[in-house]
Design a protein that fits this description.
The complex is a heterodimer. Chain A has a single domain, classed as Orthogonal Bundle (Arc Repressor Mutant, subunit A). Chain A has four helices and two strands; from the N terminus they run H-H-H-E-E-H. Helix content of chain A is about 55%, strand content about 15%. By secondary structure, chain A is α+β, with helices and mostly antiparallel strands. Chain B is α+β, with helices and mostly antiparallel strands. In chain B, a hairpin with a 3-residue loop joins strand 20 and strand 21. In chain B, helix 6 packs across helix 14 and helix 17 crosses helix 28. Classes of the chains: A alpha+beta, B alpha+beta.
Chain lengths: ~110, ~850
């Protein structure tokens, strides 16, 4: 699994981090994704994904401020690394290429 | 700060997270879950948020977040993974035992969850009211009156408002008034409705009965308004908006001014309709007014100001009563307070409220504990016995240098997997079990996230206890083995732990016989109640009802028509339905100094002939003349006894019954049960009805049930087509008096059967293990010429001995508890030794059957296969 591949959910998480920059952390990413996709997304799924993305080198993180609501625990903010940005860009390009080359007839069935 | 921590996430889940989570991730994860939790508290409420917090913690139990537990010693770590593998293999290999352990435990845990839910519902009656700690019902306590020992749940109508006015510490009061059933009609929908109350508007302020539709400030203030519960709104109006619709209630037309939001089922006074108290009028023929302090028929609730001590407040009510009653009356009673949450299990009886019986809660709770204990022992027994087959494995592990601590893990791992798995399955199936109980036995319960959290808090520790118990003994024994002995084979396996096994088996059989005999006794008592001779012929009596005014007008023509039907042998009217629904009041008689409070009821002509009760002396009301109607009084034997008369002496004695009748005894009727059998037959004074009665009693020949109902209904339709036809047999109606008894007896019966099954499969597993240990012994015996029968006998005799011992221990225990339970009934079945014998025989039979099947299998095995292994 390791390498430069991006899963669908991973891609969504990275994009959400981009949207929320520079305030992307676990809960805010989850809320953003829930709102945008309308799916039931659990916190643990987001964290698992963040962990994997960081391992692949697409993300870096840094502790931020704490709050009462978090029982005094600090937030961990996530940022996209240059490598991450490049992978994301490549994924997008690849899709656009694929879209461009799609035979239009394929979508006209039924 | 205190409050903040109380509303926080569940502590055990937090600890669980801290325990398994990687230290470098803990701050981020813990913070995120907690923030999420507080977001949810705002949106979905505390209990839901807590549940989701727990689930979140469980969801994070993923490889990336779990810390490494065994990182110091590589050898033990290797072995630990190996443990998992070996545990899985041994579970797979011994499928029979796996099945036995898991089914027993799962069923037991599911039963315990069901019982917990049922009990939780019972003991939380009325706890959903926000003001529950400050709301009290005023009771009318006659216990210091020598001629009465009653506590009455109602007081006079002026009491509530007067108390609010007199005491600053009372902030609010609400009076209720029950109305007898009435016909409620909307367009073509018409039904008899029983639960209609008049209530002060403050009802909504004192109790937590929010309105889902309508204005709470005005809903109960409009005189011709009516507020209904949601089920009623759907029953009458379907999907239409009920607000502003016109309902016909009895002879009045009322406008719907509000609908209650769904009311939790554990509310002690079930109601369907509430009308403003202002609309209540004194019924026709009652010699009282709404200012009458002595008209004790109104349930009254008061709300004390925060911080008022009820014990200090209660005595003030005595002085308060003194200002409103004459001195000679004030000595006969005092006002008392009863907290809202204590009403359900309280000792103050009231007809229209629900009441619980703590005995059943205890009984059910004990059954739950016993089942758990039984399954726990079963499990421990099998795990212990099975672990002994691992001696060689343990020996080898020890020689390889495994530490004691890590061996301990080895023995705890297998039961842990099984127990937690069983718990999970139990949680999944228990809602189905509950809804089955609700359907078959109409058991009430509430299943919500609050309960789910309580269940988790209770059952996770219980399962850890079971794991510990079943793992600790083998762990202790095994880790103390000398590896050399084990590997040399000089350790005798079969006898290890056999004393503990005997003790556990004995306890197991004790529990089984307690439950079997106990449920037989409970069942016997309930059957006895349902079949006891009540002094009248209950299965030949049918009841019809109609509103009082209609009955007065149409009874004679209807009676004439009904008596033409060949199946109808007699017809009369009477107050109540033999369910204790009577009036009461002070009764005085000539030659008796103090008036005595007695039940008073009204019956029509030929009532006793109709229901089949004999007159002992004198006559009953029959073709009543003006004198009998105005002055005639019939008493039951108990009244004569209370006044010290023989039945013959009683005739002609002057009696004054409350304010209602002043006359002389014309007849004495033999005792019959006009209340449920929880009560003894009390003195009963019967008068000729002047107020409106609503029940018609028919003496019928029920052989041809269909003909009977059809002809009665057509007679009814001819004479009063506008009134709904409501026909029941008295027998069926009386069953409803024992609903609680029947529900709990059937619950206990079901769980006892389950216990027997669990015990049986436990025994089955155990015997198969024991006979495995003794395989060589059996082989040698066979080679030496022992017959199959004698081998079966040798293998079984210990168990049979244990069963006998268990029964000896339990009989006195059962006798003690069952007689204290029976004392709650006024009428008890006698002591019956046969229940005990049936219990013993049943346990023996089941055990022997299992024993023979299992031991026969071992005894018929070819000895060569066993012995040649050495």
């Amino acid at each position: 699994m390791k390498g430069t591949n991006l899963g669908e959910f991973e891609e969504l998480v990275m994009l959400a981090i981009g949207v929320l920059h520079p305030k992307a952390y676990g809960v805010s990413i989850k809320d953003e994704l829930t709102e945008r996709t309308g799916r039931q997304i659990t916190l643990s799924a987001v964290h698992a994904s963040l962990h994997r993305l960081a391992e692949k080198g697409f993300l870096e993180s840094q502790f931020g401020e704490s709050s009462n609501k978090r029982g005094g625990k600090r937030k961990k903010y996530f940022f996209i690394t240059a490598f991450g940005a490049k992978t994301l860009e490549e994924a997008k390009l690849m899709r656009e290429q694929l879209w461009k080359d799609v035979n239009k007839v394929a979508f006209q069935n039924n | 700060m205190e409050k903040f921590s109380q509303a926080g996430p569940p502590a055990f889940a937090k600890r669980l997270l801290q325990w398994y989570c990687k230290p470098e991730l803990i701050e981020m994860i813990e913070g995120d879950i907690e923030e999420e939790f507080y977001n949810r508290v705002e949106r979905q409420g505390l209990s839901k948020a807590r549940l989701i917090y727990i689930m979140d913690v469980l969801r994070f139990f993923k490889p990336f977040a779990i810390k490494q537990f065994f990182k110091t010693n590589h050898l033990t770590m290797g072995l630990n993974f190996n443990y998992l593998k070996v545990a899985a293999r041994s579970l797979k290999k011994d499928k029979q035992n796996l099945f036995v352990s898991i089914t027993g435990l799962t069923v037991a845990l599911a039963c315990a969850i069901v019982i917990y839910t049922v009990i939780d519902f019972q003991i939380n009656y009325d706890t959903f009211h926000i003001n529950k700690d400050n709301v009290y019902r005023i009771i009318y306590d006659e216990t210091n009156n020598p001629s009465s020992d009653r506590k009455i749940a109602t007081v006079g109508p002026p009491v509530g408002p007067a108390i609010v006015e007199a005491f600053p510490e009372v902030v609010n009061s609400a009076r209720l008034r029950y109305t007898p059933n009435q016909i409620v009609k909307y367009k073509n929908n018409q039904f008899y409705e029983e639960k209609i109350y008049y209530a002060d508007p403050s009802l909504i302020e004192i109790f937590s009965f929010p309105l889902s539709k309508g204005n709470p400030n005005t809903a109960l203030k409009e005189k011709n308004g009516i507020v209904l519960t949601e089920p009623m709104a759907i029953k009458y109006f379907g999907n239409e908006n009920p607000l502003g619709k016109i309902l016909e209630v009895g002879e009045e037309t009322l406008e719907v001014t509000g609908v209650f939001a769904p009311i939790p089922k554990n509310n002690h006074f079930p109601f369907d309709f509430i009308r403003p108290f202002e609309a209540f009028e004194v019924p026709y023929g009652y010699p009282v007014t709404l200012d009458d302090w002595g008209w004790i028929s109104f349930p009254t609730y008061i709300q004390l100001a925060d911080g008022t001590d009820p014990n200090a407040f209660e005595p003030k009510l005595v002085d308060f009563a003194g200002t409103h009653f004459l001195a000679d009356r004030i000595d006969n009673f005092r006002y008392g307070l009863q907290n809202l949450t204590q009403i359900y299990f309280g000792d103050v009886y009231s007809e229209h409220t629900k009441s619980g019986n703590y005995n059943y809660v205890y009984a059910l709770g004990s059954v739950g504990l016993l089942i758990l204990l039984l399954a726990g022992f079963n499990f421990t027994n099998i795990t212990t016995a099975k672990s002994l087959t691992r001696a060689t494995e343990t020996g080898i592990r020890k020689t390889l240098g495994t530490s004691k601590k890590s061996l301990w893990w080895r023995y705890i791992l297998e039961p842990a997997i099984l127990v937690l798995g069983s718990l999970l399955v139990a949680f999944i199936i228990s809602p189905y079990l509950l809804s089955w109980c609700a359907q078959v036995m109409s058991i009430d319960y509430i299943w919500n996230s609050e309960l789910a959290i309580k269940l988790i808090y209770t059952f996770i520790p219980i399962s850890f206890l079971i794991i510990l118990l079943s793992g600790i003994y083998p762990a202790f024994i095994m880790s103390s083995f000398k590896p050399v002995d084990v590997l040399k084979g000089t350790v005798k396996l079969g006898n290890k732990g056999s004393w503990m096994r005997s003790v556990l088996v004995t306890i197991q059989f004790s529990i089984t016989s307690i439950l079997i005999i106990g449920s037989l006794i409970i069942n016997g008592q309930v059957d006895y109640l349902l079949n006891k001779d009540l002094g009248y012929q209950k299965n030949q009596i049918a009841l019809l009802q109609m509103p009082g005014e209609t009955l007065q007008r149409y009874f004679e023509p209807l009676k004439e028509r009904l008596l033409q039907i060949p199946e109808v042998k007699g017809a009369s009217i009477g107050g109540g339905r033999m369910d204790g629904d009577t009036g009461s009041g002070p009764v005085s008689a000539e030659g008796i100094e103090e008036p005595v409070r007695m039940d008073i009821n009204a019956v029509g002509d030929d009532f006793f002939k109709t229901i089949g009760v004999d007159m002992i002396a004198g006559r009953e009301f029959s073709q009543t003349n003006a004198y009998d109607s105005a002055n005639g009084i019939v008493i039951n034997e108990q009244v004569a006894k209370a006044f010290g008369w023989t039945p013959e002496e009683a005739l002609g004695k002057k009696i004054q019954a409350s304010g209602q009748r002043n006359g002389a005894v014309i007849g004495v009727v033999s005792n019959f049960h006009f209340q449920s059998l929880h009560n003894e037959i009390k003195p009963l004074v019967l008068i000729y009805p002047h107020t409106r009665l609503r029940n018609i009693y028919l003496r019928v020949d029920a052989q041809n049930f269909h003909n009977l109902v059809v002809s009665v209904e057509s007679a009814w339709k001819d004479i009063i087509p506008e009134v709904p036809f409501d026909f029941v047999f008295l027998d069926d109606h009386l069953q409803s008096l024992y609903t609680t008894d029947r529900q709990f007896s059937s619950l206990i019966k079901v769980f006892s059967v389950i216990t027997i099954v669990i015990a049986t499969i436990g025994l089955f597993g155990l015997i198969s293990l024991v006979s495995q240990f003794r395989m060589k012994e059996i082989g040698i015996r066979k080679v030496l010429g022992a017959s199959v029968n004698s081998i079966v006998f040798i293998l079984s005799k210990n168990f049979i001995l244990l069963i006998l011992v268990a029964n000896l221990i339990t009989w006195p225990i059962i006798y003690y508890f069952s007689s204290s339970w029976m004392d709650t009934f006024a009428y008890q079945q006698g002591f019956d030794l046969s229940f005990y014998f049936i219990g013993l025989m049943l346990t023996l039979f089941v055990a022997l059957l299992t024993l023979f099947i299992q031991t026969f299998k071992s005894a018929t095995r070819n000895p060569i296969n066993v012995i040649r292994m050495d």
